[in-house]
Amino acid sequence: MSSLKISNSRIFGGSGWNRPTWTDCLLIEDGAILAVGSSEIKEVRSEPVENIDLEGALVLPGLCDAHLHLTAGGRSLRIPDLEGLDQVGLLDALRSYADTRVNSSDAWIKALNWEPWRCGLNAELLDRTLPRKRVIVFTRDLHSCCCSTAALAAAGIGSDTPDPPGGMVERNPDGSPTGILREAALGLIHEITSTPTPNEIERAILEAQDYIVSLGLTAVGEVLETGYEQVYRRLDEENRLKIDIDAWLRIDDWDAGSQPPAEGRRFRLNTLKLFLDGAMGSHTAAMNRPYRDVPDSRGVLFYSDDEILSLVKPAVEMGWRLAIHAIGDRAVGQACRILSQLPPAASGRHRVEHVQVLPEGGVEILAGCGAVASIQPVHLIDDQRWMPERIGEERWRRSFVWRSLWQAGIPMALGSDWPVASPNPCLNLHVAINRRGFHESPGKYFNPGEGLPPFIAVRAATHGWATAAGSTDSRGAVATGKNADLTVVSGVSDDLGDWSKAKIEMTVSRGEVVYRL
Fold first, then answer.
1. 235: which of 128, 157, 413, 444 lies 20 to 30 Å off by Cα?
2. Where are the domains of the chain?
């Protein structure tokens, strides 16, 4: 049997949503936690084992990201990240990237994380920067993009192109496209961009995996695109996955009759993803009242209640659980109404993704539907700079209300939505607790009273993932009998409130050290 002892550490023990019980050592055998604490270890093992002295470092249950796009994140490591750039910096980044691709066989130039509130963009600007090139620049929320004229022409998008259901082709006064595509209209461009091969998908998964285990992550929730499931299953069968993958299928890709397939060693697929609205940055999050800065818009609500029920009720009866995207208060209210009419998930919990703006009385409404609130604290860093002006202070006070959710007994799971935002779990925890990023001063609207207690933030990043995924029997806590999934961190304050100096020392996945500083 393979055995490993971790000693001289500060172990965040205990389980559930309870305060931690602290101890200094644990014993791992064959990928599971055999004993926690000196007295337990003495009872089960006396002979020598491999020992790792952590010199006082903090040992957490393996940190998890409940909502990201692993493969897209892997691909994003190879293309420009435009976060924080003004128009001059953004266009310079595109030129520099294009210069490196002179001999590339891929005719498309793509970039991520354009922030429209920092700078405007249209096809004309892209054409002047990169003449005759097929350029697509995605907004930070991935719900909109800006295309060059060559890209629009390749997709057949012109003055006569109708808006697809649930989407919009933004137009100039003469009817010609500006280059901006919103929501479902992105599908017009996705249809003709190069489709990754299985080898390219594999490379993206493995590169992303190496990156996130270096950040201390041991499990993720992943939205599958066409062709990805087969690659993940092959990697799982070949024992090349170092993390647990809780995969989701878009409900439009479900065959409307099958049950969830059998689970693999690391890969499972029993969740269906459903979008109710868009995103705040694109003015497509569904609101009960108009946006302050666009008074003729309340965003986009994609379905009526009856349409949703006809989609999801058969799925839940077949054993699927739901992950429902809802950002605006109108969409969050609809998600809660729908879930209140459905039976519980066969395993784990149904979940509402993002829940950024709650309707009036929304905490109680959400508590009543039994869902997990899947939140992405890291989004608050930027959103608190511009959202209050967009929706007004009254609705802002109902936004990102994490402490209120916890106090109402609503289970939470922390995620990042990478590559929309950083997947660094230490940053995510810091924001969940402090309502601001590392070394930032409090903003005008940062609302400190809605920060989470540090131990609850850690539980949401560990036990919260396991609760949503139906894995509390095997992970989410440092406790005897659980899988040995651990994140070892130094530099965290003693009260677990300040993560600005945190450093990942080691990531352990099922007893295997998969990353070590």
1. 413
2. 64-69+197-477, 73-190
**C-alpha span between 413 and 302 (Å, rounded):** 25
Encode pLDDT of 254-297 as tens digits.
Answer: 999 999 999 999 999 999 999 999 999 888 999 999 999 999 99
Distances (CA, A) of 80 to 312, 378, 398, 440: 37, 20, 34, 25
Q: What is the pTM of this model?
A: 0.89
State phi, psi for 26 to the nearest 5 degrees.
Answer: -150, 160
Distance CA(501)–CA(41), nearest Å, equals 32
Q: Which residues contact 310 (CB under 8 A, 6 or more apart)?
A: none
Beta pairing, strands 32-36 & 134-139:
unpaired
d(CA 516, CA 390): 44
Q: List, in order, residues 6 or more apart from 394 with CB less than 8 Å away.
A: none
CB contact at 8 A, 152 and 177:
yes
Neighbour-count burial of 22, counting CB atoms closer than 10 A to its CB (0-12 exposed, 13-18 middle, 19+ buried): exposed
Q: How far apart are the first and last CA of the chain?
A: 26
* Phi, psi (rounded to 5 degrees) for 61: -55, 150
Note the pLDDT tens digit of each residue in 400-446.
999 999 999 999 999 999 998 999 999 999 999 999 999 988 778 88
CATH topology of domain 64-69+197-477: TIM Barrel (3.20.20)
Do 302 and 374 touch, CB atoms closer than 8 A?
A: no
C-alpha angle 203/207/213, rounded to 5°? 145
Per DSSP (E only), the strands in 143-234 are: 144-147, 167-171, 177-183, 217-223
Two domains, one topology: 64-69+197-477 and 73-190 = no
